[in-house]
Queue: 2 jobs
Job 1
Amino acid sequence: MAIQHLLTSPGNGNTVLILDYGSQYTHLITRRIRQLSVFSLVVSGTSSLATITQHNPRLIVLSGGPHSVHALDAPSFPDGFLEYVEENGVFVLGICYGMQLLVQKLGGVVNVGEDQEYGKMEIVVEKEDGLFGMKEIGGSQTVWMSHGDEAVTLPDGFQVVAKSLQGTVAAIENREKRFYGLQYHPEVTHSIRGMETLRHFLFDICGLNPDWKMQDVLEEEMKIIKDMVGQDDHVICALSGGVDSTVAATLVHNAIGDRLHCVFVDNGLLRYKERDRVMSTFESDLHLPVTCIDASEQFLGKLKGVTDPEKKRKIIGKEFICIFDGFAQELENKLGKRPQYLVQGTLYPDVIESCPPPGSGKSHSHTIKSHHNVGGLPKDMKLKLIEPLKLLFKDEVRQLGGILNVPTAFLKRHPFPGPGLAVRVLGDVTEGNALEILRQVDEIFIQAIKDEGIYDSIWQAFAVFLPIQTVGVQGDQRTHSHAVTLRAITSQDGMTADWYYFEHKFLDNVVRKICNSVRGVNRVCLDITSKPPATVEWE
Ligand SMILES: Nc1ncnc2c1ncn2[C@@H]1O[C@H](COP(=O)(O)OP(=O)(O)OP(=O)(O)O)[C@@H](O)[C@H]1O
Ligand SMILES: O=c1[nH]c(=O)c2[nH+]cn([C@@H]3O[C@H](COP(=O)(O)O)[C@@H](O)[C@H]3O)c2[nH]1
Ligand SMILES: NC(=O)CC[C@H](N)C(=O)O
Ligand SMILES: [Mg+2]
C-alpha cells in the first residue's frame, strides 16, 4: 500500500498536469517543465475528471501516443473535460497525438497523412506573436517529429501558427479559448528551440510562476512524514548504499530521528566485497545505524533454475519484502510495537518502466521491466510504503541529497539495481561459478575506470556474464570458457542512454587484465548499444 505524498501536487493553481497517452517522451515533458521551476506530474490520459480537477492545474498537457485518433480504442480525456477547462480558465497544450485528439474532439478533421514525418524536420512560423512569440514570423527551426496522422481541417477559432516544409500543420492555437497544439515534440533535445518555446508558453502565455524549488520538496516531504508517522511509531528503511535510498533515509531520519531503523540486505547478488564496503561507509560517513541481514542463501535458493528475467525480478521483489517483514517482527519483539512503514528509495523512472499500477498514468504504455521495488512487490504486502523520491529523477535526487548534506561520495555513485547481479548473469544465476566470475570481471573494469579518472563522466558501468562458452587459446592450450560483456553508458536520467566512448588503449588494457587474471573467461565483448533500442541492464 503506497502513501500519497503532497508532492503529487501542491494544488495551488501553479501545477502543470500531463495526461499520458503512452508517448515514449511523456516523462521528458515533466522533466523539461520542472527544469523551468514549475511543478508538473503525469496522470493517465483516461483519468476521471475528479482526478484531474483535484490537482487544480493551470495547464494541462495532452501527451503524444502510439494510437491513431481513428482507432476504436483511441484513449481520450473524460466527459466534461472541455467544459471544465473552459469554465476554469485552464490552458491546454496538445502534443502530437494530444494535438490530434484536441482537433478531432473540437470538430476539426485529422487524416492519415500521405507522407509520414519521423525524425528531424524544419518548420516555418506563419503567425506573428503566436506560440513562438513576436519575433518569429517567417523564421524556421529544426524540430523532432514522429507521426503519421495530421490535422487537415482546424476547429472553429483556431489558427495555424507554423507548418512543416512539407506543408503539414505543425503548431496551432485558439488564444481566446486557451487551446494550443504542437505536432512536433518540444520536449526532446533534437527540437533545438524546444526549451525556449516551452519557456515562452509557460510564463508569457500561461502566466505560470517559476516557484518550484527542491528546498520546497524537502520541507513538504518532511512535514508529510512527520504528520503521517505517529509520535511513537517506528519505521523501517530499505537501505542499499545507493544514491536513492541514502537520500531517502537521510530525509526520513531528519523527520523522525532514531525511530528510523535502516536495514541492508545481502541478497547474494552484490558486487565484489560490496557488503563490507557499504557497511563501513555507512558507519564512517553517514552515521546512521544500519542492520545488515545476510539473506544470500534464501535469495539464491529461490532463484535456482529460474531463467526468465521477469520471473527473477518478481522473486527478488517478493524476497526483499519477506526479509523486511521478518525485520519488522524482530523490532516488534524488541520495541513492543511493530513498524507499519517501509521507506524505499523508489524513483520516477522505476515507476515509469515497471508494471503500471492502475491509475498510475502508465496504463497506455508497455511494461518494459518490473523494477523489484515497484512491479516486483507482492500484492499482499502489509508494510505501507513511504517513497519520498517517487516523483523525482536521479539528477533531482542528487540535488536533494546535496541540500541534505549527504556526502558527495554517496551522491556520485553509479546506480546499482536492487536485483543486482541477477540481471547481469543471463539465465540461471546460480549456475556454476558465474557470480564469482562476474564479480571479479566487474571489479577490474570499475577499478580501471576509477584509475583512469573517468568514473564521474560515466553514468553507469558494469560487466555482464554471458551463459555461452567460446573457444580460446591460452598458454598454448585450447580453452572453452565464458564470454563476458562490458557496458558503460552516459545518461541524464537512465531513461535514454548512449554508450561511453572509451579510448582504445584503455579497453585494450582492461581486456588483457580480465583474461589474464579471471579464470574461466577467454573473451570480452563491448556493448555499444544505446537505450533505446536496448535497455541499460541486459535483463
Ligand atoms: N541490498 C538492498 N538492501 C536493502 N534495500 C535495498 C537493497 N537494494 C535495493 N534496495 C531498496 O530498493 C530501492 C531501489 O533500488 P535502487 O537500486 O533503484 O536504488 P538505490 O540502490 O537506493 O540507488 P541507486 O539507483 O543509486 O543504486 C532502494 O532505494 C532501496 O530502498
Ligand atoms: O533498483 C532497481 N531495481 C530494478 O529492478 C532495476 N532494474 C533496472 N534498474 C536500474 O534502472 C536504470 C535503468 O535500467 P534499464 O534501462 O535496464 O531499465 C539503470 O540504472 C538500472 O541499473 C533497476 N534498479
Ligand atoms: N507520436 C505521436 O503522438 C503519434 C500520434 C499518432 N499515432 C500518429 O502517428 O500520428
Ligand atoms: Mg541500487
Note: The pocket of glutamine (ligand 3) is lined by residues 23, 64-68, 96-97, 146-149 (CB under 6 Å).
Job 2
Amino acid sequence: MTSASSNSASRNPLAGFFGVFRYSRRALGLVWETSHWMTLGLMLCTLVAGVLPAVAAWVGQLIVDGVVDAMEAHRAASDPELLVLITPVLWLVALEGLIIGLIAMAQRGLAAQQSLLRALLGQKVNVMILEKAGRLSLSQFEDSELYDKLTRARREASTRPLALVNKTFGLLQNAISLASFGVLLVQFSPWALLLLVAGALPVFVSEAKFSGDAFRLFRWRSPQTRMQMYLETVLAREDSIKEVKLFGLEGLFLQRYRDIFTRLFREERLLTLRRETWGFLLGLLGTLTFYAAYGWVVVETIAGTLTLGEMTMYLMVFKQGQAALSASLTAISGMYEDNLYLSNLYEYLEQPVEDDGGTLTQGTHPGDGLRFEGVSFAYPGGEPVLHDIDLHLAPGQSLALVGENGSGKTTLIKLLTRLYHPTQGRILLDGSDLRDWQTEALRERIGVIFQDFVRYQLQVGENLGVGDTHAFDDQDRWQEAARHGMADDFIARMTSGYQTQLGRWFKGGQELSGGQWQKIALSRAYMREKADILVLDEPTAAMDAAAEAEIFARFREHGRDKMTILISHRFSTVRSAEQILVIDRGEIIERGTHDQLLAADGRYATLFRLQAKGYR
Ligand SMILES: Nc1ncnc2c1ncn2[C@@H]1O[C@H](COP(=O)(O)OP(=O)(O)OP(=O)(O)O)[C@@H](O)[C@H]1O
C-alpha cells in the first residue's frame, strides 16, 4: 500500500473500510487459478449458507402459526382428525429439518474446500515466491527491504491468501443473510430495518477506523519484527548455536528479543484496548436497539398485529441479523492483516527483474579469453570498491589475485561471473561484452567456488552433482570430479559412499570437517566439464599442507588448456601462477610473475618475505 492511500484511509474511515477489499480481487484470482471447481464450490456453499438461514426463519414462522392454527382447529372441532390437522405442520417441520441439513452441508462443504484449497494455495504461492527468488539478481537479494518482503511472504504463504478469500466470502455470506433478513424485516416495518442498521453503524465505523490503525501499526513495525525473526534464527539454528553457546549469548540475545516484543506489545496493547473499549460502548447501542425492537415486536404481538409465528421469526431475524453483523466486523478487522500480507506479497512478486543478459553463445573472437577494460565498480549505494581494472587472461594462462582483506578480490570474481555489472568499463569474453552473453552459455564456461560455498544438506553425490545440473545424477561424473577434487578417498571410507547424507539436518546425516567440505566444493567445481574458466576463491584455507600441495598440482594439471584464477593468501600457492595481480583498495598496484614481483621489491616482495619468515 502506498503511504498516500494509507493516509487517506486514516482520514476517512469509509476509505479505510473499502481498503479491506484492496487485495480481495487478487486473492480471489489466485484461488480461482488454483482450482476453478473448488472456487465455484466455495461460492455456491457461501450462497446457500447465506440465504438459507432466512428461509429457515420464515419456515419457522409458518410452523408456529401452523401449530397455533391446528391447536385452535383441534379445540373447535367436535371430532378432530388429528392426522389431517398435523400433517401440514409436520411437512413444514420436515422442510425446516431439510433446510437445516442443507445449511450444515454447505458449512461442511465450505470447511472441506477451504482446507483443501489452503494446502494447494500454500504450495502455489510458495512456488511463485521461490520462482521469483530464482530470477532476482544478487544485488536485489542483498537489499534488506526486499529480503524482508521475501521472508515475510514465505512465512505465511499457506494461510493468508485463502484467509482473505474466506473472509471476503464470509462477508458476502453475511451480506446475503442480512439482505434476506432485511426482506423479511421490512414487511414488519421499514423502521425496524433502519433500527437494525442504525444500531450497528457506529461500531462498524469504529471498527473500520481501528482496523486501519492496525494495518499501519503492523507495517510500521516490520523492521523490528525482522530483527526478532533474525534473533530466533540465531538462537535456534544448528549453524549458529555453537558460537552462541561458547560466547554465552543466549541471555543477551533473548533479552534483546524480549525488549523488542515489549516495545511492540505496548503499541499493540494500546490499540487493542482502545479498539475493544470503543467496540463495547458502541456495541451497547446495538444491544439497546435489539431490545427496543424486541419490545416493539412483543407489543405488536400482544396487540394482535403479529401472529405468534411472526413474533418468533422477527426475533430470530433480529438476533441472527445482529450476529451476522458482528461476524462481518470480525472479518473486516482480520482482513486488514491479510491485506497487509498480500500487499507485501505482491510488492515482492512485482519487483522488476533486471534484464538477464543477451543472446550470444559464442564470442566475436573465440580464443581471445578474458579481458577487463577500465572496470570500476561500487556496490549499490556504496563507495567504489574497484578502480579502473585492466587485465587480460588468455586460454591456458593462470592468474592469481593477492591482496589484503577487503581489497576487492572476490568482488572482481563476482563481476566476472556477472553476478554484478561493472559501474564503469566492460568485461569481455572472447571479444564480446559479458552483458551480451546468454546467461546459460556464460555460466557453462565458468567453474567457480567461492569462500562461502554452500554445504548442501543432501547426499554426497548430490553435493557434487549440483555443480552441473545436466549430470546431477551421473555417478561416473561424480567419481571423476571427486578424484580431481581429492574427495574420493574419504568418500570411499564413508558408510554409504556417494549416497551418504551430509550435514545434521536430516536423519543419519554425517558432518564433515572444514577441509573435507572444501574438497567437496572443489570437486563440485570440477563437475563443470565444459568450463574453461576455473576460479578458486581461497579454496584450501581449511586443508592440511599435503592436501593443499596436491590440490594445486592437480589444479595446474587439469587447467592446462583453461584459464585459471586463484585467490589465496598463501604465497606458496600463488607463486606458480603466470600472472600475479596485487590488489590494494580496489586498485592493481603490482603485476607480474613471482620472480618479477620479487625483483621489483614492492608490496608483494614484502608480504612474501613476511610469510616466508613465519615458516622458518
Ligand atoms: N555485498 C556487498 N555489498 C556491499 N559491499 C560489499 C559487499 N561485498 C563486499 N563489499 C565490500 O567490498 C569491498 C571488497 O570486498 P571483497 O569481498 O571483494 O574483498 P576481498 O579482497 O575478497 O576480501 P577477503 O580477502 O577478506 O576475502 C569490502 O570493502 C567490502 O566491505
Note: The first strand starts at residue 370 and ends at 378.
